[in-house]
């Protein structure tokens, strides 16, 4: 089995690292100082599930150098997906499957438009991790979970093989949902509502859920996304909002999201595929999402500044 990790930050570095720790032939695609550090010093992962260090890591910035692989785990930021799809073409062979782990629900479509629908799965992961430095990944919260499957729900032994391999990795749980579309929207509800409310309030999850007003804001944001999912024919369970709140309550109280951290640091964020997408989808469906619209409008100036479109 040959696996390529396209984007080797908090998510790609962790899951790719666990596969490599198991003995899988893993090729990391990275860039800059992170790539240099991985090549020279290996990959260090500090994890609540157990720290580990990979001294010898296959890493490059060239997909052509890797060539065709069995699986590509796409872990770049959401706004980089279209460019990543073009760049990963040399790694796509006749039997390659591409698994996107981006926040949001648009990545499979973007990848399929360039690589073909037969090559792309739906996918998601649950983990609170980030790149702590060049060649250094930190996993600080959530039991690592990865789920994927064909969007049309058809069975595929290649999907089963990858899931079984992940389940052999230390501390990782993998499963193939009955409907990956539902699973992706459940994750979309959680991450978009949490990221948006957290970015606006600049507070960790424990604080957000402790204060009545911000807790209600979270519930309202979740309810809007839940209703939007139903309008888009996603068969979300009736208790989706309550279950999402319960999941958030299980996280360490100091937890933050990558979008929240990016916005706080003045970096480009995934706002466009989270709260922005909620508002866009709602407009198409004839729905109103006032909480998500407030979040979007509140964060838009700093997002435009981070992308160089606005100066203040």
- CATH class descriptor name of the largest domain: Alpha Beta
What string gives the helices and strands in order? EHEHEEEHEHEHEEHEHHHHHHH
How large is the share of residues in beta strands? 15-25%
Q: What is the CATH fold-level name of the largest domain?
A: Rossmann fold
Average pLDDT figure = 97
Q: Give the second-level CATH assignment, the architecture of the largest domain.
A: 3-Layer(aba) Sandwich
Number of domains in the coordinates?
2
Structural class: alpha/beta
Strand order of the largest sheet: 5-2-1-6-7
Largest sheet: 5 strands, parallel
Rg over CA atoms: 19 Å
Q: If helices are DSSP runs of H or I spanning 4 or more residues, what is the number of helices?
A: 13
- The tally of beta strands, per DSSP, is 10
The poorly predicted ranges are none
């Amino acid at each position: 089995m040959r696996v390529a990790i396209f984007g080797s930050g908090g998510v790609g570095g962790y899951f790719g690292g666990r596969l490599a720790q198991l003995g899988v032939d893993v090729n990391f695609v990275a860039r800059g100082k992170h790539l240099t550090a991985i090549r020279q010093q290996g990959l260090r992962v500090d994890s609540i599930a157990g720290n580990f260090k990979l001294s010898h890591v296959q890493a490059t910035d060239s997909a052509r150098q890797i060539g065709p692989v069995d699986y590509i785990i796409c872990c770049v930021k959401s706004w980089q997906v279209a460019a990543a799809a073009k760049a990963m073409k040399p790694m796509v062979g006749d039997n390659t499957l591409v698994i996107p782990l981006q926040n949001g629900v648009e990545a499979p479509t973007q990848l399929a438009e360039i690589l073909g629908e037969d090559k792309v799965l739906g996918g998601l992961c649950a983990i609170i991790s980030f790149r702590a430095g060049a060649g250094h990944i930190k996993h600080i919260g959530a039991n690592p979970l990865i789920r994927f499957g064909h969007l049309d729900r058809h069975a595929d032994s290649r999907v089963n093989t990858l899931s079984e391999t992940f389940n052999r990795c230390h501390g990782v749980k993998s499963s193939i949902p009955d409907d990956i579309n539902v699973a992706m929207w459940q994750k979309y509800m959680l991450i978009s509502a949490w990221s948006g409310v957290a970015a606006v309030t600049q507070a960790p999850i424990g604080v957000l859920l402790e204060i009545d007003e911000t807790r209600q804001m979270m519930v309202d944001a979740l309810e809007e996304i839940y209703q939007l999912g139903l309008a888009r024919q996603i068969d979300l369970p009736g208790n989706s909002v309550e279950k999402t709140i319960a999941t958030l309550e299980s996280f360490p109280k100091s937890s933050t999201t990558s979008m929240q951290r990016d916005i706080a640091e003045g970096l480009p964020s995934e706002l466009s595929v989270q709260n922005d997408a909620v508002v866009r989808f709602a407009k198409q469906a004839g729905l109103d999402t006032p909480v998500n619209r407030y979040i979007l409008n509140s964060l838009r100036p700093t997002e435009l500044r981070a992308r160089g479109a606005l100066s203040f």
